[in-house]
User: What shape does this take?
Amino acid sequence: MTPLGNSASLTTTRNVPMPDEAVPNSGIFARDAILIRPKTNPRRLPMSTSRIQELADEARLLLKRNPLMASTVSLQRVATRTLLKRRFQYGRTLAAASKLADCSVGIAALAGYFPDLADGGYTRLLELPPAVAGPVGADPYRSSALAAWMGGLARSLEWQAARPDVQVVSGYLQPDLIASDLELERQPACRLSCGIGLVRIESPARSPIMQALLRQCMPDYPGSDRPITDDAELDRIADHLEKAFALIAELDECGYQRLIAGLHTLHVGVRREPQCSFSSSNELPGSALIALSRERLRDGDHAATAAQLLHAAGNILLGFYTTSAAASLPGEFKYVSPYKNDLQTLESILHTAYTIPWECAMRMACLSTEADPERRARKTGFIITYAARQVPLIDIARKGIERLGGDVLLDLPDIAAIPSWSGRILDLVGQLLAEEPVAHRQAHLAERQRVLDRQAWDIGQMLLRGEEPIDPRLGRREIDASGDNVSLWYDGKFHVIPKAADHAVGKDYGRYAATIRGIAPSEMEAM
Assistant: This one.
């Protein structure tokens, strides 16, 4: 993870006694006072093999306690609720489009993919019989291709609510392109032994809808300077993924079952940079995008890929879970994410608070499989640094859940356990931190403080722009008469924060990031 940089350039800080009202939660790193003054020899030997195995075993136990694997909400029930909800949404969209002249052929072709909606079934939504979701690969309501085209059609009607233009709407009713996208999904380039299909990431190039969504998920790939995934590279990707899936099956059996039950397609490619990309979207159900680096394929770091696959699975599972619910999570932008440094909804916060700890737990479980001490040390440092931003985030997630109404929690009971489960994983990361040499430990603790200082600075920017973000570590605050500076307590530390001219306050970080990069044209432009 890229360090946040020197917070001194962002805030003026001084350590002073903490006021009573600013006492933070004891939080995940309550042992920090002990860790800063260790009694160990700074030249001590690396962790023993037995200690590594002990921490890996503890991580595996936490993986088994994943809250969204609880029996109170079965995947079948969630899948069926999602089917019924999408059936109603798709039916209303098809019914609205059918009122336009010259759209009947396209509407009939698109509706034909959904048995209950075919032959005008979309006009009789209230009369449709109950339905039960089938396997992920056979359920048309979990098709990425069909969801992409249906979503585009729905948005085109919303954009032109007063007077829909037939020519624009018909752009989302192209039977040949829809059939081509669906064929790629149902007849992939190859399949893994678990049944998940692999599609070359550049394959849907003719499809304006799929390409627009792929760019939104992974805006820097594919591009003009990216290599095409040839057969040899596809074979290497498939072999690498087979080994990563096998590792998941060994260390996190429940996670493996959820992964293959929630995914039918992986859009895969190879990139030249050393970083790998794993992305997913609710608008592309049942699929994820993976761009593996040539370095990852060469080194065979299956543990890292396994952990990132579970991260993607977590996003898909939580999105699937919340999409199925009758009571939606509140959509207010009230929380500052230390990963995105902008206002976010509770759902966005929960995604980060759920998936990154899951990934960290998997990485810890894999430490015992890494024989090379140097690589294991690097992986240990990565886990600790990667988890640092969870320190404020988990408490933010907990506070957001506390604010939910009873109806929402009755409908989404398992999300209430996410902060506690994630907190236990972060406690385990704290144990890993305690095993680090003194110099490394102090550097990690300094990084944690930079995270907290940056969080205070971002909250200060929001306050100076009239926003009131919710963060349990935020104490007393006061904006000066000029409106250009705010004094605030955050996590027991006093900050004086000046207003920054270039700090964006976006309502949707993803769209904001796409806008400033200038690389994500809208679907209308793509068409």
